[in-house]
Amino acid sequence: MRVIIRPTAEAACVTAARIIAEQVIRQPASVLGLATGGTPLACYRELIRLHREGRLDFAAVTSFNLDEYVGLGPENPQSYHHFMFANLFRHINIDPNRVHLPDGKAADLRAACEAYERSIVAAGGIDLQLLGIGTDGHIAFNEPGSSLASRTRLKTLCRQTVEDNARFFDDADQVPRLAVTMGVGTILETRRCILLATGENKAAAIGAAIEGPLTSQNTASALQLHPEVIAVLDQAAATSLRRLESYQNAESYMPDPDELT
Ligand code: GLP
Fold first, then answer.
1. Which of 92, 174, 104, 186 lies closest to 139, judged by CA?
2. Which of 32, 124, 131, 135 is 20 to 30 Å apart from 60, CA to CA?
């Protein structure tokens, strides 16, 4: 796994955005996997900025989001649909018909999960997936104990995740207990991944994901099986890593991802 450590959260998010931008510049019809949460907000701001400067064209891009709360429709400000339009899609020229998020209000959720998997395959698979990480090591909503071979499905959220995500709601009671999420197996089939983590509260989860044993108790650790993952961290999120020096040394031989072609 390539590990890039930036001095600040803002700088880490800019680096993640530049990697995404480079993908879209190189392959305008890219299929992007996108994430929600507080972490990617600054990354999306940078993508919007590059688009407004005329350096980034999303017209041919297709996107798939990782997850959605069960019971929340796009009109609900707490839904991930709403989040994506408010924080990215509305500000760039992506075709809304090419945007995909799991439907948390589908009448038949199981069938909708299977259809979501099929639509990813029909789009040719995900070229670049952006991932955040939960404080319990989850990617998307693959909570500890999730099968590392799991596909898009319904998942019950852990108490820790409900508490962590309560800050986006008026109170914790309003956080849905169920979500539809891409599986770990689905994520492992993407061609490239960025694991973006910032802040001290992610340090333990990041240490376990990157240097710990492969375990369903930290589903981000499954990324050790993925052939092309770039972990982009700020210094605070990197504090539990033991091999810091070797990552920094390796980076000194790599091209700077912040430089756009
Ligand atoms: C949620 C999302 C994850 C995200 C995580 C961390 O649980 N389902 O995809 O990575 O939150 O979010 P934040 O960036 O707000 O810490």
1. 186
2. 131
